[in-house]
Amino acid sequence: MITLWLDIDNTLYSAQSGISAHMGKKIHQYFLGMGLEEEEASALHLQYYTKYGLALRGLMLHHDVDPLDFDRKCDQSLPLEDLIKPDPALRKLLQDIDRSKIRLHAERVLRILNLDDQIEGLIFCDYTQPNFSCKPDPEFYHQAMEKAGVTDPSTCYL
């Protein structure tokens, strides 16, 4: 058995959708809402994204930001329904693969793309956990394998 890991953002939909640009603006606004000046907000956003894989991790670690508030103001406020549409070729590709082990944001994207019935399970950055891990932290991948019941990384594809 193999396990196929699908990265939702800019993978199941085109990077040309504009979602990353919209997200960047929302995150920048979040930094500005903390009272930071434009340049300081931009620099800190880049620093946290580069160091932690998510700006949110840096915000949580250094500014005690509530991840669910961040999620509401950033991820959940994106106009995804206007930016992405189902891709019949991608759907067919997933239908042709034996069922593989694959939350709010992920479920929403999968639903909009009409792929939610093609995915057996989700592994995600769980903002409800006080010290969640995320890509590219190796701990994220170890936790994902554990949750999926996978012990042999050579059977996993990302």
TrEMBL record:
Cited InterPro entries: HAD-like_sf, HAD_sf, SSM1_domain
Domain of life: Eukaryota
Gene Ontology molecular function, alphabetical: nucleotidase activity
Record Pfam families: Hydrolase
GO biological process, one term: pyrimidine nucleobase metabolic process
PANTHER family membership: PHOSPHATE METABOLISM PROTEIN 8-RELATED (PTHR47438:SF1)
Protein name per Swiss-Prot or TrEMBL: HAD-like domain-containing protein
